[in-house]
Design goal:
It contains no helices and seven strands. By secondary structure, the chain is mainly β. A three-stranded antiparallel sheet has the order 1-2-3, with no helix packed on it. The chain has a two-stranded antiparallel sheet with strand order 4-7. The radius of gyration is 12 Å and the shape is globular.
């Protein structure tokens, strides 16, 4: 979705989030709204910008990105 030239993603809490503001909660690297290429069965709708799965939660489940407030 684009709005004024910025790429956005509809957040589960029903508000638009700038994709540029999404980060992996484990390592802080940028996250993108694409399933991981390296572990598609890992689950999750997001991956690092290089296509790898986001860092897993402590229980091993797929993490969801966090929104960085600037």
């Amino acid at each position: 979705m684009t709005s004024t030239g910025l790429t956005t993603h509809r957040h589960e809490h029903n508000h638009d989030v700038r994709v540029e503001d999404l980060r992996c909660p484990g390592c802080g690297e940028p996250a993108i709204p694409e399933p991981p290429e390296d572990r598609p069965r890992a689950g999750g709708e997001f991956s690092h910008s290089d296509g790898t799965a986001l860092c897993a939660r402590a229980d091993g489940t797929a993490a969801e990105p966090i929104e960085v407030a600037w």
